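Handout, page 2. Input:
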Amino acid sequence: MSIVKILAPLTGGARDRLVLTTAFVAAEPFAAHVVALFVRPDPTEALPFFGEGVSGAVIQEVVDTAREAADKAAAETRALLSQLAKDAGVEITQAPVKRERMTASFADVAGTFPDRASEASRLADLVVFGPMRENEKPGVMEAFEAVLLETGRPVFLAAKAPPKGFLDKVAVGWDGSQTCAHALTAALPCLKKAKTIELLMIAHSGRVAVDCAEAREYLRLHGLSCTERTVEARDRTTGETILNAAAEAKAGMLVLGGYGHSRFREMFVGGVTRYVVGHADMPLFLVH
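Output:
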């Protein structure tokens, strides 16, 4: 089990630099191939919204202008990939290949960002997104949730800066749920590269923290050892507690099950995933 293909969905915006840099950092321990996926809006998808009174010439002008803007953004994104790949010593190839060192390729597709990112993620071992914040560019949060919830692929959510030593210490949030178990098994390639692993359990007032013996045994069968720590939530939420615990441990990455409850329930009751995604200062490895 390893990571050989990493997808980096790109929008042509300022966030692309961090996404690509993070993808290269994540790829290095595995000599993986990074697919830089540029998604250009398809201007023809907007045609049904033009009224009957709009002339064909005006519509064509709008379509041509949109295509020119997309062509320019694609060229700038390709140039950014070339620059960052050169700095990181990554070979650019025409198509995905597996070699002894990292490689990368550029893919240019048209459509909506969530749809194309989700489709391309189906056969990727890891999908890299930039940090998610409340004022996120339209379509980016939707793409992140579509990949996480619909494809079953692991998502590597970047921090505000490219990660350094993210595998020195990996923290794993554990509550015994199916979602956490899925995240733990999906993260095995990273855990096998990690120097230390810590399982974090959250204890709430009046409730006993879940036992981690089964998770510890599973890791041991894979030749991995771990430490364990139970953290009292007190008056904090689970999301706040798990982030604080990972930060106190100086973890380079936090592994979590994403959206253990329904997305709608998370939205209205402020679930763990939404809080962690919006407040994390370290890379997140998320799996639904």
